[in-house]
Every structure is written in C-alpha cells, then in structure tokens.
Write a structure and sequence with these properties.
The complex is a heterodimer of chains A (376) and B (520).
Chain A lengths: L15 E7 L7 H23 L4 H13 L2 H26 L7 H17 L9 H30 L3 H23 L38 H18 L1 H11 L1 H6 L4 H28 L10 H11 L7 H18 L4 H15 L1 H5 E7 L5
Antiparallel strand pairs in A: 1-2
Chain B lengths: L3 E12 L2 E12 L3 E6 L5 H8 L7 E6 L2 E2 L5 H6 L2 E4 L11 H6 L11 H15 L14 H14 L4 E5 L7 H16 L3 E6 L2 H7 L2 E6 L2 E8 L5 H9 L17 E11 L5 E11 L3 E5 L6 H8 L5 E8 L2 E5 L6 H10 L2 E4 L14 H5 L10 E2 L2 E2 L1 H14 L16 H14 L4 E5 L7 H16 L3 E6 L2 H7 L2 E6 L2 E6 L4 H8 L16
Parallel strand pairs in B: 3-8, 3-9, 6-7, 7-8, 13-20, 13-21, 16-19, 19-20
Antiparallel strand pairs in B: 1-2, 1-4, 4-5, 9-10, 11-12, 11-14, 14-15, 17-18, 21-22
The chains are: A mainly alpha (376), B alpha/beta (520).
C-alpha cells in the first residue's frame, strides 16, 4: 500500500486554496459585469502581445478608440457597420434559441438584398413611386425573400429531419450564385458586375440628408436601418419573453421532449422560426443595399451573416444584448481597418472573443479562496 | 470484540451552501452488513464518496484496519480494499462481463487470454452466488445481472469492504431476494458490506447494524437492527413521526373516465410493446398498474396521454374516442386533445420529459396552462399572472426554491417532482396518469405525494398509478392490474405480494390456483 498516503504525514501545502464552485444563483448584473471584465482582460492580453512585438499598446488602443468613437463621423460609421450586424445577430439569436443552427444568415442576407433590389430593378414598382411606398415595399420584399431562404431548410428539417447546419450552409452558396447571375447577366450595368444605382427614392434616409437643417449631420452615413434594427430587437425580445409563441420556442429549445409532452407543435414552430430568422437576415440585406450600397453588387457583405453567429452567441442569445455587442463589433471592424488591413485588429478581435466565451465559466461558477490554517 | 474494518471519525465535508457531512462517526465491523440510512441529500453518498476517495474530507479521520489513511482517488481506495457499486452502473455495453471486470486493471498485459479469466470470474461468482455468464455482453444482461458484474468487479479487485449505493432501486422483487442472499454470503465470508438505502423495510431485513444520517449529521450510529423499529428509524431519518398508513376514506367509484380497449403499440425500436391491453379507471378511484420496469408501462402511459401512437384498439376518455389506430393527426394535436379534456400526466422521466431544466420554476409551472386565460390573452403571456400563480403553487406544494425565477435544474429531485405534481394536480385533472410519482423521493416526501394522490381521489379524479413499488401500489390502489411483456396478466382487487409477484413474472391470474388472488 505504498501509494496510499498517510494523512498524519506532514507535507508542505499552499497556504491559499483557490477553487471553482458552481453558483447556486446568478444575479442579473453578473453577466454584464463579467463580460465587461472579459473585454478588459482581453485588452490587457492584447496589450502584452502588442508590447512584445514592439508596439505601444496604449497608443494603439487610443487610436482604435478614436477611430471608432473619436468623433461624430466615425461614431456614425461604427453604427452603420453595426446596423446589419444587429439584424443578422437577431436572426441567429432567435433560431439558436430553439437550437436551430441557422448558419445560413449570410445567404438569407443576400436573398434579402436580392428581393429588395428586385422591387427597384425589375421593376415591380414604377420608378416614380415615392419613397413612402417604395421603402416599405423593399423591406417587405427583402424580408420575404430571406424568409423563403429560411423556409426551405426549415421545412426540410421539420418534415424530413434534414440537418439544418448543412442545408443552410449550402443555401448560402446558392444565394450568392443567384445574386451573381443577376448582377452579371440581367441587371448588369454596361457589363460591370453590378446593377445601376437605385433612384434616390429607394435609398433609406441618412443623417446626412438632413444636413441642411442640422449642419452637424453633414457627411454622416448612419441610416434608417438602425431604427429598423432597434425596433426588430424590441420585437424579437417581446416575442421571446412575452408571447405564447416565444414560450414555445424557448421550451422547444431547452427540451424538445418536454415541449412534445406539453403538446407544442414542433414541426410548425421549426418552419416558422426559420422563416422569421431568415426574414430578419433578409431585412439586414435590404437595409445594407438600400442604406449603404444603393445598388446590387457582388461585394455587399464582408461575412455579416457569419459574424452574426458570433454576435448572437456573445449576446447570450438575448435580443437586447445583441445591440451593444453589434456596436462593439462594428467598432472593431472599423478600427481594424484604420490600423492595418489585417493582423493586429483580427488578433485583438480573436482575443476578445476567446475571453468572452471563456467568461461563461465565471458566470456559472465563482472563485472560492480559502486560507488554510498553518498546521503546527 | 469484532475488529473494525473501517472507521470514520468526525468526518466533515462542506459544499457551497451546505454542510454535507457534519463530524460524522461511522464504524464498520468486519463481516457485518451495515446500513446507511437517510433521506435524499442527507449526506449518505457524500460520506461514502469520501470513503472511496472521490472527495476529500475538510476534516476528520479515516482508519482502515486501524491505520489512518487518506485517499486521493478511488484507485487508492480499492487498493486499500474498499470498493463501491454505484447506483448508475459504469459498464461498457458492447463488451463482455469479463472484459468489463478486467477493464483498467492493467492485466492481462497484451494477449487477452480470456478463457482463463472467464474461468476465474465464473468461480468467483459461484463462491458468492453471483451467477453471471462471464462471456455475455453487458447489453444482453438484465439490470440485476449487470449489478452482479459490478459487484464481481469489486470482488475481483480484492475488495474487503463493499459499498452498495441504493442497490435495490433498479431491481424486481425476485432479484432483490437474490441480492440479499449474495450480501449475506459475502458477509459470512468475512467481507464487510455498507448498504446505502432509504427504504426502511429493506434495511430492517438485511442489516446487522444501522447508521442514520439526517442533514449531514448522524442521528444514530451503529444502532443494532434488532433493537430498532421502523417507526423509530423513520423518526431518526425525517426528524418527526411519519405516517406509513394514510387513512383512505371509503369512496364509491363513479363513472368510467378512462377506457383503454384492446390496444397494441410499438416501442421506440419498432417492436411490439403492448398487446391487446384493456383497462378502465373510474372517477374517484386509484387503479394501480404493477409490473417490473420495461414491461410496457411507459408505452401504455404514453398511449393514454397521446404521446405514442397505437397500432390497434382505442382509448376513450369520458366515453369519447380520443385516440385510435390509423390516426392521421399530428402528435401535438393528440397530446393537446388529451390535455384539453383534463388528462394530467406525471411522467416517468422528470428531467428529460417532465421539465425544461434551464427554464424558470414559473415557466415550468405554466407548461400545461400557458395557452389559456388567465395566464395568456391572445398572443401574449401575462407574466405577472404566471408569476403569482407560481408563487401560490410554490407555497401550497412546499416547493423549496430560492425564487420562482430560479431555473429548475438547480432544484433537488424531490422539489422538481413537487413542481411537476403542482403543475399536473394544480389543474384539477379528471384523469391523472402518474408514473412512479414517488420514485427516488425520501420518506417524508413520499408521504406528501401519497397524500396528494389520495386527496385527488377524494375529489373525484380518476387516477392510474404506475409504480414498481408493490407496497405503494397495495397501499394506495382500489384495484390493480398486473402487466408483463406488454400483456395484461389480470386484474386484482386485493391480493398478497406473492400472487402479484407471480403475475409480474408472467403467470396469468386465470392460470393461478383458485385459492389465491381473488381476495375476500
């Protein structure tokens, strides 16, 4: 029995013991504080790396902060970047709540952009139509096109149990190719791979449009899409936490067997949630087309659909938390481009992500530090 | 004086928010069967997990053969001759008994000379009355046989002290008898056995001495069995007098609420699970369904609640056909129809079917009623009404939870069961299908559950009670059906456990000698 250690034997031990213990209750503010702490820690870690490669972390961070929040102009740019992220983040948060892994927000974004463009370019409405009609029509078309893109994998999942991860992923490629066909062949402008510019009536109003009345708005690109995104966040929050349907979504997401036992129609909900999720991502596409790009072209998304997955996850699938997380990501995207095209900003983005995801541990657990009495 | 195999002195273990063991003394003599009795959460498992090296005590001393030892892992404990058979078996289903027993031993080194090991294990089994085919794959074995493999695993490792954690929870009555024989053989052979249980009758029949734990403290340490009684043990366990025989008022049953007529159904693997099953439950009566687990009870309960399709026959509630074969409506429609016509269901699986672990107590309580006023109006759920309903259920059903917003995964098993019972009974059901409503609960909580069922009966509910505890069924039921292999063995009004035991193993009532089973 040589390996059995006798407890009477004296042995040096750390005077402090640190253990993780599961939390029994989680106060409401905890998630916020821990996330903030995680971001702070990430910046410290990033700073160390910066220092190691010979940079000045404080200067770099100051520069990044100025580049994304330094003046009204860049704040507006940050918000413009955050706008599609909010909508796409909501799309993912909603689907993920039901454990539907919709990673096809990118494709639904393109479908939405296509749907909105079709209203102007086909044209479904006469070019002289006023914006009051044209914009809502584009929103509806964008939403519906995205919803159709969500419906297909949703229906396949509900009816034939086709894995939605694969089907939504594949639908992304189809959406991009579909768009390409139209910008190359049908709506091409003089052989370029883009459509003509939309008439002004099809543009979402920007702050800059009101520069005559309020001079401070001159050159500000933030557009009405932000309002759409904020409203959508409130609506999705209400649906999830205050409606019967949202209750069913949360129930299915947490325990499908319990949902079945409670008589919830899982098939119908799968299709509906995928449609709403696709619709929200479609709305993001519409907002980007009509608020920023003003034409249909190939490069309309630097992967918003995929960033939306991360946004939703970091927001812990809470629709309201999607808003600040999107702004953070908008800022990182913008500041990153200001510093250098690749490398450092991506690294900091990565460190922030890892820290935020790891901080989950601190929300579920807490540190317990005990001081051991010194044995005599 | 018989030497002590194990002695634990003043063992204390603290978990966040709980003192799981509060300076507990425990002595295990060589060659005795020592029962460790206590309610759920009393600290039985913690104490034994300390003894087997899974946890380390905050303070206290462990002596094995009068030598103080401290274990860092179960491996250390088994080296010192202490082995534990856990409630949930740790076996690899696709491997044979022998392979499972050898797993992790480091022998045989390279060549699997299985024949020799098979032989050794068969001999060991014979010695202690643990009959298992060493060459059989685990998945082919019954639960009782799997348990024997677990015990053999410990014996093969040279355990002198065997800890059995709630070993009877998964066994049929006959298997329990065999286990008891084995336990006695092992004790006579000089092994010391710790028998963890919360079932008083078992403890009284198998143990030489008893240690009772309540809320982490030993309320009795090494009490001789013959000097104790069921009532005294219950008092030591619960801290108050416990009523074993609840008063059951005489009540003439009313009209037929549930009629199951010639039902066939398949199990999840697509094999026949029910064959020509018929039964009726009338209002104001509790009808028991007895049977060894896995004989079709779960499938029957699912058919009645609309969760499983039937391939033949029909189910009526209040005379109206609710489910029949060649049903084309969706599952949710069938379940909804049942819920809407007042059928409540306490499911067998509390965590995987009966609740949504990450949702709050409130959300779990509205699972059946969220579609209707006052909880919801139109599309929206009135969260203040849901909350106040939850608060009132929480107080009337004694649900111990920090708040109604707490996710139910943080609740203990007994409290989770209260949440489910509160939800299902709180709706004043016309028919209640209760699967094992008291399983895994402790004496005090069981009394509470039984009381609730009897109250429902008095209020005129029809209750189908499915349980593997014969005693519970005989105590509560007005009538009983016995099921075996998916077929009804017969209906009994009053019968002794032996008759029902025979029926549970597959003898039809009609085939039994006329003298038994019919009752007075």
């Amino acid at each position: 029995m040589t390996t059995v250690e006798a407890s009477t034997e004296r042995r040096w031990r750390w005077p402090i013991e640190i253990r993780l213990e599961p939390r029994l209750t989680q106060p409401a503010w905890l998630g916020f504080v821990v996330s903030l702490g995680a971001v702070a820690l990430a910046l410290v870690l990033g700073g160390i790396v910066l220092k190691l490669v010979g940079g000045d972390p404080l200067r770099a961070y100051r520069f990044m902060l100025m580049a994304s929040f330094g003046n009204l102009g860049v704040i507006s740019d940050t918000i413009t970047k955050a706008t599609p992220l909010i909508l796409v983040g909501l799309a993912c948060a909603l689907a993920f709540r039901m454990r539907l892994w919709n990673i096809g927000a990118e494709g639904q974004f393109f479908a939405g952009a296509f749907g909105a463009s079709a209203v102007v370019l086909t044209p479904l409405l006469a070019p002289e139509t006023s914006g009051v009609w044209l914009i809502p029509a584009m929103m509806l078309a964008g939403f519906l096109a995205g919803a159709v893109w969500g419906f297909l994998p949703g229906f396949l999942k509900a009816r034939f149990n086709v894995n939605e991860i694969i089907s939504t992923l594949m639908m992304n490629y189809i959406a991009v190719a579909w768009n390409n066909f139209f910008i190359f062949a049908v709506w091409t402008e003089g052989g370029f791979q883009m459509s003509r510019v939309f008439p002004r009536t099809a543009w979402l109003p920007r702050l800059a449009d009101y520069a005559k009345a309020i001079p401070e708005f001159r050159g500000l690109t933030a557009h009405l899409g932000l309002v759409i995104g904020l409203l959508a966040a409130v609506v999705v929050w209400w649906v999830l936490y205050r409606s019967k349907w949202g209750y069913e979504i949360r129930l299915i997401g947490d325990n499908p067997k319990a949902a079945r036992y409670a008589g919830v129609n899982i098939v119908r909900n799968t299709v509906l949630v995928m449609m709403l999720s696709g619709g929200l991502a479609g709305l993001a596409g519409m907002s980007e087309i009509s608020g920023v790009v003003h034409r249909l072209q190939g490069a309309i998304s630097p992967g918003y659909g995929f960033t939306g997955i991360i946004v939703a996850w970091l927001a812990k699938l809470n629709p309201l938390a999607v808003i600040p997380v999107s702004v953070l990501f908008g800022a990182l995207i913008l500041a990153g481009r200001e510093i250098q095209p690749s490398g450092l900003p991506k690294m900091i983005q990565g460190i922030v992500l890892v820290c935020l995801i790891a901080s989950e541990l601190m929300i579920r657990n807490r540190l317990r530090v005990t001081f051991r009495p010194v044995r005599s | 004086m018989v030497p002590h195999a194990v002695e634990m002195r003043g063992v204390t273990k603290r978990f966040p928010g709980v003192l799981a063991c509060d300076s507990v003394d425990f002595e295990l003599r060589q060659g005795e069967v020592h029962a460790l009795l206590g309610e759920n959460g009393a600290g039985k498992s913690t104490l034994m997990n300390i003894l087997t090296g899974l946890y380390r005590p905050d303070s206290g001393l462990i002596l094995v053969d009068n030598t103080p030892l401290s274990f860092r892992s179960p491996r250390d404990a088994i080296r010192a001759g202490i082995g534990m058979v856990h409630q949930h078996f740790m076996l690899v289903p696709s491997q044979t008994a022998t392979e499972n027993i050898l797993l992790g031993l480091g022998e045989p080194r390279f060549w699997m000379r299985l024949r020799q090991y098979n032989q050794a294990i068969a001999e060991l089994g014979e010695q202690y009355g643990l009959m298992v085919d060493p060459r059989a794959k685990i998945w082919q074995l019954s639960v009782g046989e799997q348990q024997r493999v677990e015990i053999l695993k410990m014996l093969y490792r040279g355990a002198k002290v065997l800890i059995l954690d709630e070993p009877t929870a998964v066994l049929a009555p006959q298997e329990i008898e065999e286990l008891f024989k084995t336990v006695r053989t092992m004790a006579q052979g000089g092994k010391s056995v710790v028998f963890i249980s919360h079932k008083l009758d078992e403890v009284l029949s198998i143990a030489d001495r008893i240690t009772v734990l309540r809320k982490g403290k030993a309320t009795a340490s090494g009490l001789a069995t013959r000097e104790s009684s069921k009532a005294e043990l219950a008092r030591l366990m619960v801290g108050r007098e416990v009523l074993f025989h609840l008063e059951k008022k005489h009540r003439a049953p009313g009209e037929v609420v549930l009629a199951v007529e010639g039902v066939d159904a398949l199990n999840d693997k697509g094999l026949p699970a029910l064959r020509d099953v018929s039964l009726t439950v009338r209002s104001g009566e509790i009808v028991g369904l007895a049977g060894v687990a896995g004989n079709g009870q779960s499938e029957l309960a699912e058919v009645i609640t609309g969760l499983r399709r039937l391939t033949r026959g029909r189910v009526r509630v209040h005379g109206e056909v609710m489910v029949q074969d060649r049903e084309t409506r969706g599952d949710d429609t069938l379940v909804r129809r049942m819920i809407d016509s007042g059928v409540a269901h306490v499911p067998e699986d509390r965590t995987h079917v009966g609740s949504a672990p990450n949702l709050s107590v409130t959300d779990n309580l509205i699972m059946k009623g969220y579609r209707d006023p006052p909880v919801s109006h139109g599309w929206s759920i009135d969260s203040s009404v849901a909350r106040s309903q939850a608060e009132s259920l929480r107080s009337s059903y004694d649900i111990m939870t920090p708040s109604v917003e707490t996710p139910v995964r943080l609740l203990s098993g007994g409290n989770l069961q209260r949440v489910i019972l509160a939800r299902e009974i709180g709706t004043r059901p016309k028919l209640l299908v209760a699967m094992q409503p008291a399983r895994g609960l402790d004496v005090g909580a069981i009394e509470g559950v039984r009381r609730l069922l009897l109250e429902q009966r008095e209020e005129g509910a029809a209750i189908l009670l499915v349980s593997e505890e014969l005693e519970e069924l005989m105590e509560l039921s007005d009538r009983m059906y016995v099921i075996n292999g998916g077929q009804m063995m017969g209906e009994v009004r009053q019968a002794d456990a032996a008759t029902i035991g025979l029926m549970m193993t597959g003898t039809r009532l009609a085939d039994l000698p006329a003298s038994v089973g019919k009752g007075p």
